[in-house]
Amino acid sequence: PVLQTNSPNKFFDALAMGKAILINQEGWLANLVKERRLGLCHHHENQQKTITELEAFLNHSTKLKTAQSNARDLALFHFSKERAVQLLLFALDPVKFKLAPTDGVYILTA
After folding, report:
1. In the list 38, 75, 94, 105, which could disulfide-bond 15, CB 3.0-4.6 Å?
2. What is the pTM of this model?
3. For residue 18, what pLDDT is reported?
4. Burial track 69-83 (b if 16+ CB lie within 10 A, e otherwise)
């Protein structure tokens, strides 16, 4: 059922490629897009608002480049293979494998 509304793999692929995000679902991924300035969220109740925001976003190169950079940084520092291994080792033995403090993304993905 969850894949009927969106594809999280596509979201993470876009992050890894450093692409700005336009997400069409509410939830923790939409919150991440907003909080991390990764792109835009679709307004279901007002599609024209989404179109207007998208046009302005695409025409503002600084906002676009910032979203792209933020996406890539998030992928590298929070969703990389290395980070996943750190989290797994910490979950298995928190005394032996210390975990560097995070800024909350781990909590969202745990």
Report:
1. 75
2. 0.75
3. 96
4. ebbbebbeebeeeeb
Phi, psi of 105 (to 5 degrees): -65, -40
Question: What tens digit of pLDDT does each residue of 93-109 get?
Answer: 888 988 766 655 544 44
Six-digit token pair at 29? Answer: 């991924």
Host H or E run for residue 32: helix 28-35
Q: What single-letter amino acid sits at 62?
A: T
pLDDT single digits (tens) 10-60 = 899 999 999 999 999 888 899 999 999 999 999 999 999 999 999 999 999
- Is the Cβ–Cβ distance between 18 and 69 less than 8 Å? yes
Question: Is the Cβ–Cβ distance between 37 and 70 less than 8 Å?
Answer: yes
CA distance 65 to 57: 10
Instruction: Identify the CA nearest to 43 among candidates 29, 35, 53.
Output: 53
Q: Contact at 8 Å (CB) between 62 and 74?
A: no
Length of the chain measured in residues: 110
